[in-house]
């Protein structure tokens, strides 16, 4: 199966402009060039993963309970201790949001 190609190259921290507006906007991942992203229905995007789980895919992960997003590398554990924005009373559950596809 062909996975989407994602290039993450930030020259600085990206702050969504809608955060400063009075309109309430949902916290969602941002991108500039949509032609570099490909929709995928791969089941890797449906797996709930606990903090500390060693991930099989590099990419952006999103907590399904508080919408916080982090980047994680294949073979490394998902974070837990720095996850301060998490909603109280609900567990941290990470799901793959954007999968980075690396050349072999
Ligand atoms: Zn959370």
Which key phrases capture this entry?
104 residues; mainly beta; three-stranded antiparallel sheet; 0% helix; globular; binds zinc ion
Descriptive overview:
- It is a single chain.
- The chain has 104 residues and is mainly β.
- The chain has one domain.
- The protein has no helices and three strands.
- A three-stranded antiparallel sheet has the order 2-1-3, with no helix packed on it.
- It starts with 58 loop residues before the first strand and ends in a 5-residue tail after the last strand.
- The relative contact order is 0.27.
- The mean pLDDT is 82.
- The structure holds zinc ion (ZN).
- Zinc ion binds at residues 63, 65-66, 68, 83, 86, 92.
- Zinc ion (ZN) binds at residues 63, 65-66, 68, 83, 86, 92.
């Amino acid at each position: 199966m062909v996975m989407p190609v994602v290039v993450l190259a930030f020259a600085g921290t990206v702050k969504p402009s809608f955060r400063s507006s009075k309109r309430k906007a949902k916290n969602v991942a941002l991108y500039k060039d949509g032609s570099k992203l490909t929709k995928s229905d791969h089941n890797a995007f449906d797996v709930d993963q606990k903090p500390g789980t060693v991930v099989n895919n590099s990419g952006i992960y999103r907590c399904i309970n508080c919408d916080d997003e982090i980047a994680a590398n294949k073979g490394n554990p998902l974070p837990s201790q720095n996850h301060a924005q998490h909603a109280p009373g609900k567990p941290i559950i990470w799901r793959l949001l954007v999968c980075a596809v690396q050349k072999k």
